[in-house]
Structures
1.
Amino acid sequence: MIPEVWLGGLLLGLVTYASRSLPLLVNLRPSERFRPFLDAVAPAVVAALLAPALLLADGGWVAPWQNPALLAALPAAWVAFRTRSFGWTTLAGVAAYAVVSAWVG
């Protein structure tokens, strides 16, 4: 492999490690004013990742009743809301996707 690629990968790894470990090493804690904003980051990131995957199929808009991923996400979301368990939610989503994809085709 090209030495520049190795060097680039090494530098990216060092920067990533430093950016994640530096706050722990110097004991940086966010102020309480920023806590509500930081608590909203994870749900916003998950929504930003899931929305295109659920609403677009094969790179384009598909009617909701013909989109197995969107239809399977509905019972999975219900299980997530009721159980608050990642394992049960994953199991419900996989099972729902298998049933819906066989039904929708």
2.
Amino acid sequence: MQDFVVGISFDIEATGCRPTRHAMIELGTVAINLESGKTLSRFSVDIQIPPNRTWEERCLAEFWDNKDWEKLEDSDPSKEKKKETHERLQAKRKRVAEGKGETPQNAMKSFVEWVHKIHKEFANGDRHRIKFMSDTTAFDSCWINVYLDEFADHDPINLFFTDDKGIPKFDDVINTQDIARGLSVVTHQEALELKRKRGWYDRDEECRKRLEIPDDVQPDVEHNHDAVSDAEYIAKEHWIQKKYAVK
């Protein structure tokens, strides 16, 4: 088997911002060959809200129930896509309200088993060939780590694997957005000025400009707030940027 590094990209959807008060209701992960960009496996699970957690009103208003797309002109090409995303989020929220999905215990148990399967099948049991990754690592990994600890009695993802003596070994989690900013050679001050001028700063957008990545070179999956699709998009976009950076 070819000796390649496996990226495990992850994305979550939550009912708020605090992992001990609110709930992670969807977890999506994708294993990708970081040399070829080929998707190896996908894992997705809807998760029930535990009794001691709830929805955050601000998160509901700004994310789940946001209808800003209604203010767009019909001629705006993004309007229909944003409408579809809103409808997808509402359907997801309905499933959660109906109590559908796995218990947090079963969800995290399945996630751990899936990661170990990837580790064995595609990395030949070599922990050095597995790299966890996300585009908002500080947020998403925080949720996963809290759930791993509380519902699976497992170490966090940056200590997921152990050595031959069973001792958890630390490894960094890749933040693809930080890598994109580094590749775009945009300083913190320049990013601040872009935010002030345009109202936003997109690391991927600036990276693509710097590396001269053609507009028609895109991940073969949409970023649409479906956790497993977003996880795959994150991994594929990272792979594209790396490919153009080292060509």
3.
Amino acid sequence: MDSPFHNDQKKVTELYEYIFQTMPDFEEDALTKEVVWQKLYGKEVFKDSRLRRVMSDLLRVCEEFLDWEMYKNTPQQVQINRLRYYRTHHLDKFFKATLQDIRMYEQQHPQQDIWHYFYQLGISHEITNQISQQRKRTEEPNLQEVSNHLDAFYLINKLKCCCSIFNYQNLAVANYEVPMIKEVLMHLEEQDYSHIPLIVIYHKCLLTLLEPEKTVHFQELKTTLFEHQSLFSQEEARDIFVLARNYCIKQANQGKQEYLKELLDLYEVELANGILLDHGFLSPFTYKNIVTLGIKLKRYEWTQVFIEEYKTFLSEEFRESTYAFNLARLYFDKEDWAKVIPLLNQMEYKEIFLELSARNLLMKTYYEMEEFEVLISFLDSFQMFLRRKKKILGYHCTGYMNLIKVTRQLVRLEYGKKEEREKFKQKVVEMKEIVDKQWVLNKL
């Protein structure tokens, strides 16, 4: 902000410094135009157009700073621009030195993403133009390398785009035109691209979407992915693993329970290599999903180790509540009821749906422990909670209200006749909007 290269206006700097002082709350009263004007111009008559011009200039300076930061964070593009400058100014010695620096950088940073071959294409173009500029007719103008990098960039991005399209079509009704997909798939069958793992992997990802019944595609994807995952940038690896996990989830939902083990294998590799972390943090939803999977597979010891080890990777805001809830879920499934209640009762939940799930788990625990008097009282308070939060919860409210109603009847049926239980069971089976229907049915 103080650099004359970016900004030579004193009022722009003053405006920035004042706004910076209002962090982190940015209170509205402190940032009205009148208050800001007084801070910048004192007792001068307020002029809206003048203030808006300073504000516009500050935005421009900030955006130029962001542009510069983004540019610095793409060293490959910086290197290509440097090559272009030295080539166009006939500085051959510096061109060669920069090219050597690029090759050294590539050795030190082997990670790849979908843009890797775009940058390789840019470098190859500069080498071709350099050869042409020097008019060395006996020297091959590097055209094969240009062609190879162009093909690799196109194929990787085409395959990834097709994966996104067909993956989305599994979730929603949408029609897309996908030209040349048949030609691309035929080309990949005829050519060997084993030296470019990204092409192989996105090819296999696409085949799992187009031919999900052929499980060999997933197995080949998994083998190649596990072998080369360290080669990819974190963002690229994350995208690939999401496609692989989605395949496993879809297969498991179709009743192929062996894919739950495959899903956990994927998660374990992602955890071991930090792929699931975003700026050093693990999403509470991912944390919960992994715990759910571990519980389903009865991998209790592994799940408990995960819960403890990855607690510190949760954001501080949700750490304690997410940890307590998921540990309680583990104890519940292990039928260690006595440990569930203290964990859930001591927590303050900052996310309403997490609190809703915790109340549901607490309700089921009271039932399993046959603490029916406590349970009836709890159901009353749970019902009041749902009524207070009805607008926020929306359609979720109906499912939980029905669960409360059914749980009350379950308690009464503890002392009822077998015929009544069978009749009630049929009623539950026919219910469409109810949370935890399978748990209820298991009690009958």
